[in-house]
Design goal:
It catalyses: L-seryl-[protein] + ATP = O-phospho-L-seryl-[protein] + ADP + H(+); L-threonyl-[protein] + ATP = O-phospho-L-threonyl-[protein] + ADP + H(+); L-tyrosyl-[protein] + ATP = O-phospho-L-tyrosyl-[protein] + ADP + H(+). It is an enzyme of class 2 (transferase). Belongs to the protein kinase superfamily. STE Ser/Thr protein kinase family. MAP kinase kinase subfamily. The chain is an alpha+beta fold and 496 residues long. The chain is built from 19 helices and 8 strands. A 5-stranded antiparallel beta sheet has the order 1-2-3-5-4, sandwiched between helices. Strands 6-7-8 form a 3-stranded antiparallel beta sheet. Strand 1 and strand 2 form a beta hairpin. The chain is globular and about 75 Å long. The chain starts with 37 loop residues before the first helix and ends in a 22-residue tail after the last helix. The C terminus is likely disordered.
């Protein structure tokens, strides 16, 4: 019996990168054909909108890179322990002995011909041109004993999947800060290098004790993607429906992956299949209010599963508070393509955040906003106004020594005051208070019928979106039509 009824692609096979003259070095030139001189790179920085701190940090990295030089040699690297593994490779912390720099080295073992390995190294050299506050720095790549060695900037906070394991869930306030950095990183790759990331997920978003958030493992080498095709099973769970069906895809596919990653970090577990009401109750516990009835956590179409849905076939777990058993890979891919996308619970999270992730997780890529559309949403506008000490939070969560320089983001005053980095967003509390004052809610409470209210009814009763009103008031002194390009301490990277 064919379990793969939709003929979904596993493994992915050849993936065609976005055309870019920069990503196709000449095969006749074995030397590095990308100008990595400090002067050339500094000229490149002139084209980016950076605040003073971002520029200083990028220039410091480029100075360190000059010390390393053009040729990385295996004998110059001292292994200092494993950092993690995934996507067919192992990442280790290494010391570059000549310069004294700490790096992260990814080792990828490939059973391919030497000519293919050489081509992969050539294609990876385009990473020398990727210099952004939101992209992990690249020192170089080489082949040794059949392994591809990719040497990158060391991020001492690790990846967001590791952070998530430490905190169980990441608050909306912190997710707003992360989202801005990821969008700007994706936009930089697209606008400056015509690159689609193709592998957005928590494990490919790295953080450090200075509060920086950077993307890694984006697809610049078509040969490497093809050669590692069998290693991307885990990655498929973050792919958009159009990619899984083998259709044409664009940067909109990265937006789906971002939305799915945000839901995962918000609820603390991979969201497909989505948690049922009892599981949500178990996840959020005391964050519940009597207003936050379990019916709220079922979207209007989330219970309308197809006859062949994996959840329909194993409905026993739907009534339990325990996590459902993991789906087989093809059942999971079927679910992504056929069933309603996951979301976040309104009342635990603000309407702005829910709207943001819902817009990212539209099945039809044409219905998803582009990068500029995402940056204009109320969730992002509000998050830009909220100054949080992200670096301090990472140091606390990951038990890191704080850097000698301050990490706190200086932002315009938030109407909510100092933003808490745990618990519900203050705007969510305001939304709940507004909803509880609605005549419909009061009448249902008196009759004891609140337990049967659909989320759409609750939202309709809140005539004014409280948190949206707050976001508008905080932006009253700005001009959205012509945003200022003046660098401020709150800037987080190049304008999207």
């Amino acid at each position: 019996m064919n379990k793969n009824k939709l003929n979904l692609k596993l493994p992915p096979g050849s993936v065609t990168p976005v055309e870019s003259s920069k990503s196709s070095p000449s095969n006749n030139d074995d030397k590095q054909d990308v100008d990595t001189s400090l002067e050339a790179l500094q000229r490149t920085l002139e084209g980016l909108e950076l605040d003073v701190q971002q520029r200083n940090r990028l220039e410091a990295f480029l100075c360190q890179k000059q010390k390393v030089g053009d040729d990385l040699l295996p004998e110059d690297l001292k292994d200092m322990g494993e950092l993690g593994a995934g996507n067919g490779g192992v990442v280790t912390r290494v010391l570059h002995k000549p310069s004294g720099l700490i790096m992260a080295r990814k080792l990828i073992k490939l059973e391919v011909k030497p000519l293919i390995r050489t081509q992969i190294i050539r294609e990876l050299k385009v990473l020398h041109e990727c210099n952004s506050p939101h992209i992990v720095g690249f020192y170089g790549a080489f082949c040794n004993e059949g392994e591809i060695n990719i040497c990158m900037e060391y991020m001492d906070g690790g990846s967001l999947d590791l952070v998530l394991k430490e905190v169980s869930r990441i608050s909306e306030q912190v997710l707003g800060h992360i989202t801005i950095a990821v969008i700007k990183g994706l936009n930089y790759l697209r606008e400056k290098h015509q690159i689609i990331h193709r592998d957005v997920k928590p494990s490919n978003i790295l953080v450090n004790s200075r509060g920086e958030i950077k993307m890694c493992d984006f697809g610049v080498s078509g040969q490497l993607i093809d050669s590692m095709a069998n290693s991307f099973v885990g990655t498929r769970s973050y792919m958009s429906p159009e990619r899984l069906q083998g259709n044409h895809y664009s940067v909109q596919s990265d937006i789906w992956s971002l939305g799915l990653s945000l839901v995962e970090m918000a609820i603390g577990r991979y969201p497909i299949p989505p948690p049922n009401p009892k599981q949500m109750k178990k996840i959020f516990g005391s964050s519940y209010d009597e207003f936050l009835d379990p019916s709220i956590f079922e979207s209007s179409n989330s219970t309308q599963l197809s006859v062949n849905s994996p959840l329909t076939r194993s409905s026993g777990s739907r009534d339990s508070g325990d996590p459902p058993p993991p789906l087989s890979i093809f059942a999971l891919l079927d679910y992504i393509v056929l069933e309603p996308p996951p979301t976040v619970p309104l009342g635990v999270f603000t309407p702005e955040f829910k709207h943001f992730v819902d817009s990212c997780l539209q099945k039809d890529p044409n219905n998803r906003p582009d990068m500029n559309g995402l940056m204009s949403q109320a969730f992002i506008k509000r998050s830009e106004q909220e100054g949080i000490d992200f670096g301090g939070w990472i140091c606390q969560v990951m038990d890191l020594k704080p850097p000698s320089t301050p990490t706190k983001t200086n932002a315009p005053a938030s109407p909510f005051g100092t933003m808490p980095l745990t618990g519900v967003h203050p705007a969510t509390k305001a939304f709940i208070e507004k909803a509880q004052q609605s005549p419909g809610y009061i009448a249902r409470k008196a009759k004891g019928t609140n337990n049967f209210v659909a989320p759409s009814v609750v939202q309709d009763e809140v005539m004014h979106d409280v948190s949206a009103d707050v976001a508008k008031s905080t932006m009253a002194e700005t001009t959205p039509e012509s945003p200022s390009t003046t660098s401020t301490p709150n800037s987080i990277g190049p304008s999207a």
